[in-house]
Amino acid sequence: MIEKILTMKLFKDKYGVCRLTRNESIPKWAQDSDFFSITKTSDELSIVCLEDSIPSEIKCERDWRILKIEGPLDFSLIGILASISTILAQKGISIFAISTYDTDYILVKNKDLDNAVESLIKERYEVLD
After folding, report:
1. Among 29, 32, 41, 91, which is most buried by a count of CB atoms within 10 Å?
2. Which tens digit of pLDDT belongs to each residue from 36-72?
């Protein structure tokens, strides 16, 4: 039996990656789900949240799906994102990655999801719905 490398969980909902100006406050609509990510830099306020929560006038890339690497992952582990991004890059699949203290999240466009999951499974990753 071939041993799996890591287990990933597919989120069922669609998400958006939004760009707001750096001076804007964190909007309430961005916090309406179990998963959201907010990053503020000197250049921008970047928000990942449920697509259905995003007002139409917000600058946003929509139609992302999330694959969560089941963790927690130890900080000493090396090359997890590199391995996954290489597999997907070889298939022409763009990603948006988010890392937290416990794990990593890989966002892929919904149109690429089947190809991404297939490619990861072929490389011994387990993907759960």
Report:
1. 29
2. 999 999 999 999 999 999 999 999 999 999 999 998 7
Q: Domains of the chain: which residue ranges?
A: 7-128
CB within 8 Å of 103: residues ≥ 6 apart: 68, 69, 70, 71, 72, 73
**116: DSSP letter:** H
Region 7-128: CATH code? 3.30.2130.10
pLDDT digits (tens, 9 = 90+) for 17-41: 999 999 999 999 999 889 999 999 9
Residue 2's pLDDT band (cuts 50, 70, 90): low
pTM of the model: 0.91
Cβ contact 96:105 at 8 Å:
no
DSSP-derived pairing of the beta strands 15-21 and 126-128: unpaired
Q: Which residues of 41-54 are buried (b: 16+ CB within 10 A; e: fewer)?
A: eeebbbbbbbbebb
